[in-house]
């Protein structure tokens, strides 16, 4: 039974990733420019991506902590070194949106772990 649970989880995670990728692709094609609050967040994320972490460059319209910007840099910078991508590609709106897609799949996994913790399996 435990093996089946692993298969079900793998299938659910794969489906979640597939649907997320399809939505990401559709939205990225339809919305080439920053949308809604991306107008504020995109320039700030691009500054972090370029290595400018100064508080003097912080946009006062942003009220959230810079955690996602720092995590995004931690994901896209190593990718740029490994694949040899230019700064323009790495700090693009599409790449930064893709980081959010990866985090959404990670959140799915965290929810699964929380569910298993709250609802433990029978020992029988």
TrEMBL record:
GO terms for cellular component: endoplasmic reticulum membrane. It catalyses: an alpha-D-Glc-(1->3)-alpha-D-Glc-(1->3)-alpha-D-Man-(1->2)-alpha-D-Man-(1->2)-alpha-D-Man-(1->3)-[alpha-D-Man-(1->2)-alpha-D-Man-(1->3)-[alpha-D-Man-(1->2)-alpha-D-Man-(1->6)]-alpha-D-Man-(1->6)]-beta-D-Man-(1->4)-beta-D-GlcNAc-(1->4)-alpha-D-GlcNAc-diphospho-di-trans,poly-cis-dolichol + a di-trans,poly-cis-dolichyl beta-D-glucosyl phosphate = a alpha-D-Glc-(1->2)-alpha-D-Glc-(1->3)-alpha-D-Glc-(1->3)-alpha-D-Man-(1->2)-alpha-D-Man-(1->2)-alpha-D-Man-(1->3)-[alpha-D-Man-(1->2)-alpha-D-Man-(1->3)-[alpha-D-Man-(1->2)-alpha-D-Man-(1->6)]-alpha-D-Man-(1->6)]-beta-D-Man-(1->4)-beta-D-GlcNAc-(1->4)-alpha-D-GlcNAc-diphospho-di-trans,poly-cis-dolichol + a di-trans,poly-cis-dolichyl phosphate + H(+). Its main location: endoplasmic reticulum. It is found in: Endoplasmic reticulum membrane. It is a multi-pass membrane protein. One of its GO terms (molecular function) is dolichyl pyrophosphate Glc2Man9GlcNAc2 alpha-1,2-glucosyltransferase activity. The keyword Membrane applies. Pathway: Protein modification; protein glycosylation. GO terms for biological process: dolichol-linked oligosaccharide biosynthetic process. The chain crosses the membrane at residues 6-27, 95-115. Its EC number is 2.4.1.256. Pfam families: DIE2_ALG10. Keywords: Endoplasmic reticulum, Glycosyltransferase, Membrane, Transferase, Transmembrane, Transmembrane helix. InterPro entries: Alg10 (IPR016900). Belongs to the ALG10 glucosyltransferase family. Dol-P-Glc:Glc(2)Man(9)GlcNAc(2)-PP-Dol alpha-1,2-glucosyltransferase that operates in the biosynthetic pathway of dolichol-linked oligosaccharides, the glycan precursors employed in protein asparagine (N)-glycosylation. The assembly of dolichol-linked oligosaccharides begins on the cytosolic side of the endoplasmic reticulum membrane and finishes in its lumen. The sequential addition of sugars to dolichol pyrophosphate produces dolichol-linked oligosaccharides containing fourteen sugars, including two GlcNAcs, nine mannoses and three glucoses. This is Dol-P-Glc:Glc(2)Man(9)GlcNAc(2)-PP-Dol alpha-1,2-glucosyltransferase.
């Amino acid at each position: 039974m435990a093996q089946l649970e692993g298969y079900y989880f793998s299938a659910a995670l794969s489906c979640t990733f597939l649907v997320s990728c399809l939505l990401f692709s559709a939205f990225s094609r339809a919305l080439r420019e920053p949308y809604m609050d991306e107008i504020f967040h995109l320039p700030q994320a691009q500054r972090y991506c370029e290595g400018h972490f100064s508080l003097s460059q912080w946009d006062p319209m942003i009220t959230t902590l810079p955690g996602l910007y720092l995590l995004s840099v931690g994901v896209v910078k190593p990718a740029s070194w490994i694949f040899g991508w230019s700064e323009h590609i790495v700090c693009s709106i599409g790449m930064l949106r893709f980081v959010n897609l990866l985090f959404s799949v990670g959140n799915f996994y965290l929810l699964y772990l929380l569910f298993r913790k709250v609802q433990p399996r029978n020992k029988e």
